[in-house]
Structures are given as structure tokens and as C-alpha cells.
Amino acid sequence: MGKNDILFERAQKTIPGGVNSPVRAFRQVGGTPRFVAKAKGPYFWDAEGTRYIDLIMSWGPMIAGHANPEVVEAVKQAAETSFSYGAPTEGEIELAERICQLVPSIEQVRMVSSGTEATMSALRLARGHTGRDLIIKFEGCYHGHADSLLVKAGSGLLTFADSTQNAPSSGGVPQDLVKHTLVLPYNDVQALKEVFVKQGDQVAAVIIEPFAGNMNLIKPSKEFLSTLRQLTSEHGSVLIYDEVMTGFRVALGGAQSLQVITPDLTCLGKVMGGGMPMAAFGGKKEIMSKLAPLGNVYQAGTLSGNPVAVAAGLKTLEIISREGFFDCLTGQTEKLMSGFKLAADEAGVPFAVDSVGGMFGFYFANEVPTSFEAVTKTDIEAFKKFFHLMLDQGVYLAPSAYEAGFTSITHDNGVLEEIITAAKTAFKKL
Ligand code: PMP
Question: Could you list the residue ranges that cross the membrane (predicted)?
Fold first, then answer.
């Protein structure tokens, strides 16, 4: 038994399933999760001293590479002056100003500690602002684990649960609550129009992953997005862009800058904290001013705007704002995916790829899927084999066919070459 197995056995005694977040368990692919000892740049080393090229990067945040020296220094300096005050700091103003500057639809922003808090709070705010209860989400989108949003959700829920049932995707969520959540198919313009004709004036908010990254990577059509923006505006419903994953990851201004859509509220997380527990939600001042202490929508947090997390976030945003950062990241990610595609073609494996900025998807299918349904029809068995063939060669992919992948600025040509060489071997063995 290796050290990973020993740790996994030990972990399962005191931690349910041995992991502190379900997707870390290798439930879909089988095998033992790697217990990470340390990481640097595009690599991490497990408890057995084996080196892996990381293509998850903490599920998105580590865009500047693991243990980026500049971020580490900023965190060290912040930590010297205590970890938390529970009182305002100048750093959080700087971070708020920076976010508002980079994402112009955000006029005001409130910091929280996780993406879940951001989406949960944004929803409450939208309901408080409109005085309506009904929310719309899309099949296969994951917005964190707030009760109202755990319906037909992606990510771990899609990997482990029977999301095809018309019921809450998680146990413990009252049916009474879920009746206020309408779930529509992603990219289905007609379904969206029909709901708004019937119930548009009851809809408090529509929440969407503007590039869905929790059912592999699925891109929206232009028509779907413009219809969404138009209908929500017409009916006074709040359009919430959940950019926890895409924010500062697909482009400096997030998905909304690429799609030229102005949402009413935006949720951020992951990259904005550079790997520290940090997230935010923000948008129109008119809506944000309904939050306590100004308004009657309550939202709070002991560690919100945590100074060490703020330091990591500010430095990370500085790094990604440098000239050429996103061109380079986007180019490298495209190069990686075309390398995968070429290797699959050479081996005669039906395979498709897609990417946006530093986020990618690959599919054991003849073409890139555009819906939740299509994703669930990709060849999961082939994915599982591919995952382990890559892992055995030191490449760490997300352990589920229903997750997007992530690169960092440290995934240089040498690293890509190593991954693609591994992929060639893997496809041949499939
Ligand atoms: N929204 C999206 C789009 C996400 O991808 C995630 C997490 N993967 C969340 C919300 C929840 O964020 P957190 O895990 O920080 O609570």
C-alpha cells in the first residue's frame, strides 16, 4: 500500500468519504485520490513524492501558477500584521475598486468567503430587490450548494447523483423551497421564452454560468444570451452572471466582456482570491444598496474581506492585468486542446475539444456538446480510461467527465509538450 492509500484510509475514519469536497474523491473514475504535499508553478507533488502536471489548478484559482513568488510575498506581508480584524481595511477598498474597474457592470461589490456565499447572497438580494420568489437556473449549471440552487445542478451532483430526476439533486433540500426554482435546459431559447410569457412577472432572477464549466465546458449561443438579457430586462428580473469560475479566467473582464452582455449582478470567486477563501458579488448600485446596513437584505461574514485573502487577490489581479497575460494563457490553452485533438485523431478516437481563455473542455464524442443532455451522452467509460492513463504518466485531470479543466500562465511550451506526449500514448492505448 502506498502513502496515498494509507492517507485515504486514515482520512475516511474522520472525514466523510475522506475528502472535504466531494469532487476530490475519485468516485467516477475509481482509485485513490492523490494527497498533495506541495505544489509549484504547473506541478504538484503527492504524498509519495510523485510529480504531476496539474490541469485543475485548485478548480480554477491558481491562474498565476502554484506558489507564485509575488503572491506568496504579498500574503506573507499581510500575515505579519494579523490574519483578520473584523473591521474595514484600505486593502478591501483597493480590491473593490480594482474589481469595479475590470468589470464595469459592477458598480458596487460585497466580499464574501466562498462562491456559494456569493450566489446565495446574490439570490437573496435579487429576491429582496424585486419582492418576488421565483428563480430560474439552467440544467447542469452549478452555483454552489445553497438550498435553492441544488436543483439539477452540475459538478459533483452530476457526477454522483441521479440528476435526471425532477427532484432536488441533493437530499435535505425541502420540496417546498425547490418549488421556487425553475430549471430550464441550457441554450434552449424557446423554453426560456415560454416561461417568461407565462410567469415572467414572477421571476426574481435568472442565474447562469455564462460559460458553463460544471458539466464539462458548454458554451452558450449568442441568441440564447441576447434573449436572456432582453427577457429579464423586459420583465424586471435580475440577471445574475455567475462568474465564480469564468471571472478573471476566460478574459480580464470575464465572460461578460467577451459576450458583450451587461448583467445586473455578477458573482465572482476563485481567481479573485488567488487561492485564498475569497469571493464576491456585485452589480448595479441601485440593487446593491438594498444590502444591510443600507437596506433590509441581510448578509454578513466574520471573515469577509479577509486581509490575507485580499492581499492574495490584489496581487493575482495585478499579475493577470499585465500586458499579454490573457493572450498567452488563451494561446497556450488552445495549443493544449489542439494537441489533444490531433493525438486523438491519429489514434482514431472520436473526440472533440473546446476552450475559452484559460478554461478548457474535451469530450469523448464526435462533436462539442451544446447541452446538458448531450454531455451526459459522451463516452464516460473512455474518459475514465483516459483519466487513469494520463494520471499514470503524471498528468492530473479533473476526476470527472463533467468538469472543465484549467491552465495557468506557468503551463509553458515544455509543459504542454509533456502533456501532449502523454496524451498520444493514452489515446493509442484506449
Ligand atoms: N459558482 C460556480 C460557477 C462554481 O463553479 C462554483 C464552484 N466550483 C461555485 C459557484 C461555488 O463556489 P465555492 O466552491 O467557492 O463555494
Answer: none
